[in-house]
Predict the structure.
Amino acid sequence: MEIKELNEKLAYELDLLGFKLYECYYEKKNNILHVSIDASLDMNEIEEISKKVSEIMDKYDGDMDAYMLDVSSCGIEKKIRNADELKEAIGSYIHVKGKGFKYYGDLEDFDGAVITLKTMEKNISKTIKINYSDVKAVRYAVKF
């Protein structure tokens, strides 16, 4: 089974259980199937998800080599992977990194081309605009 197809099957099945799949990928070098869930998880939920993933894998990929299954939360500082996820993050505290710059701040707006970020610099609030095309990475951040 291709990883894209596996992602679709897992997303559907996990949605039925009330969980949102963040990402699923196979680390071939170490034979690890990584499944990340977009939620804070306790051990019972990780066990429930692991069983469901194992059922799916047994059903659809019996010919796959032996692998280890890693189920986890994507974490509080998860990556913002695309423009749609960035739009969903409006109002959140984020970290933006590009060539020659790094900013932490509250995402005020994103119009698809420009990120508007409210930052604090030496206890002074400052609103900056960043071209999305100049951004290398964006993630949620924890404000202290």
